[in-house]
């Protein structure tokens, strides 16, 4: 036996009455959901069969409402009028429930709109914090440039004393080679850290630019300022690279001269400590940038989820509005049919009264 053969008109009719009692419209999915429960046949049935039975149910209801004096199988005539009024009341209840649901969804959408505005405000604050972090890093780069200038001045002063300390070259040759290798490693570490900061700045700039474009077109001005700041950072990096090349040239001169005093060794030790401090600051800045990227990703996900919820709510509201319009149209048709059916009833009643009067007169 197929699934559709189990579904009969009586099953669909009973399900439609139960749905109407809840104040809802008996649509095909709702009827199939009831039919698939244990209280009915436990099967949904085919879409075509169920839809045909539903149309037959509505036709039967329309025919029932058009008949002036009607009877319903299994229901006494005294209760037919009560059932008609109950059906009208159920239609009104369904209409009221739909309007209340619409108001609740509008309130929910307003709440979601306020939440999205709060999310946008939070994203703006995150962008401001990122901008402040970039300014702090630029200050650190400027401080590094000043430190490099001090080192250049110290190296220039040391070169003046190289002629006087040339007799110590042989004794300190090994020490100078070791310090030179350490200096190379330190400069390599500094270059790698600077490159990592530049990459992190570029990635952070791109992410911030996309987020600002999604939130508001007015952020374009801020994006232009950010690009100018990036250009300044690029110029600073080029200046630092130039200074690094000059320091490398000075280091090669020192290697050729093969001389360094005890004071130069002390200054190199101080420079090493300063570089360690700068490396620690750079690591902290990278950690703060990672936190900002995660926060921006979370804001973007929440924004996408809010857009999806708003779209789903809009679709549901449109479907309910269409169903309410169909229900109103059906109620108006039923009212027009009832008015048309009352006119023949009044004519028949008048004819019956005239006949009774004639019979009484003849008697």
Structure description:
This is KfrA N-terminal DNA-binding domain-containing protein. It holds the Pfam family KfrA_N. Residues 351-363 have a biased composition (Basic and acidic residues). Residues 213-240, 338-363 are annotated as: Disordered. There is one protein chain. With 363 residues, this protein is mainly α. The protein folds into two domains: 1-70; 121-315, no CATH class. The protein has eight helices and no strands. Helix 5 packs antiparallel against helix 6 (169-215) and helix 6 (169-215) packs parallel to helix 8 (262-362). The two termini are 67 Å apart. The relative contact order is 0.09. The mean pLDDT is 78.
Features:
363 residues, mainly alpha, 2 domains, 8 helices, 87% helix, rod-shaped, KfrA N-terminal DNA-binding domain-containing protein, coiled coil
Largest sheet: none
- Report the average pLDDT across residues: 78
Compute the gyration radius: what is it? 44 Å
Tell me the series of helices and strands, N- to C-terminal: HHHHHHHH
Overall, the morphology is rod-shaped
Distance between the termini: 67 Å
Total strands: the figure is 0
Strand fraction equals under 5%
Q: How many domains would you count in the coordinates?
A: 2
Residue runs with pLDDT of under 50 for 5 or more positions = none
Helix content range: over 70%
Helix segment tally: 8
Structure classification: mainly alpha
């Amino acid at each position: 036996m197929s699934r559709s053969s189990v579904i009969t008109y009586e099953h669909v009719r009973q399900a439609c009455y139960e749905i109407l009692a809840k104040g809802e419209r008996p649509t095909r999915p709702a009827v199939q959901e009831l039919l698939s429960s244990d209280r009915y046949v436990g099967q949904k049935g085919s879409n075509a069969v169920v839809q045909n039975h539903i149309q037959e149910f509505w036709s039967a209801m329309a025919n029932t409402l058009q008949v002036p004096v009607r009877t319903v199988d299994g229901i006494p005539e005294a209760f037919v009028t009560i059932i008609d009024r109950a059906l009208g009341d159920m239609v009104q209840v369904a209409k009221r429930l739909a309007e209340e649901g619409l108001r609740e969804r509008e309130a929910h959408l307003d709440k979601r709109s306020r939440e999205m505005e709060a999310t946008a405000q939070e994203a703006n604050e995150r962008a401001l914090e990122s901008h402040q972090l970039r300014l702090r890093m630029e200050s650190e780069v400027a401080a590094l440039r000043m430190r490099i200038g001090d080192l250049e001045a110290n190296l220039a002063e040391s070169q003046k004393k190289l002629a006087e300390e040339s007799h110590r070259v042989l004794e300190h040759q090994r020490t100078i080679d070791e310090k030179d290798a350490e200096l190379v490693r330190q400069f390599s570490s500094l270059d790698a850290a600077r490159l990592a900061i530049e990459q992190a700045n570029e990635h952070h700039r791109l992410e911030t630019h996309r987020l600002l474009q999604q939130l508001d077109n007015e952020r374009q001005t801020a994006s232009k300022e950010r690009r100018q700041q990036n250009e300044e950072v690029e110029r600073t990096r080029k200046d630092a690279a130039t200074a690094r090349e000059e320091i490398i040239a000075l280091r090669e001169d020192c290697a050729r001269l093969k001389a360094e005093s005890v004071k130069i060794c002390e200054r190199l030790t101080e420079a090493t400590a300063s570089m360690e401090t700068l490396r620690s600051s750079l690591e902290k800045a990278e950690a703060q940038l990672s936190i900002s990227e995660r926060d921006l990703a979370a804001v973007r996900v929440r924004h996408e989820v809010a857009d999806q919820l708003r779209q789903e709510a809009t679709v549901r509201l449109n479907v309910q509005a269409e169903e309410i319009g169909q229900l109103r149209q059906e109620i108006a048709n039923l009212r027009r049919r009832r008015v048309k059916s009352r006119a023949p009833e009044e004519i028949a009643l008048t004819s019956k009264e005239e006949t009774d009067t004639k019979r009484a007169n003849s008697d």
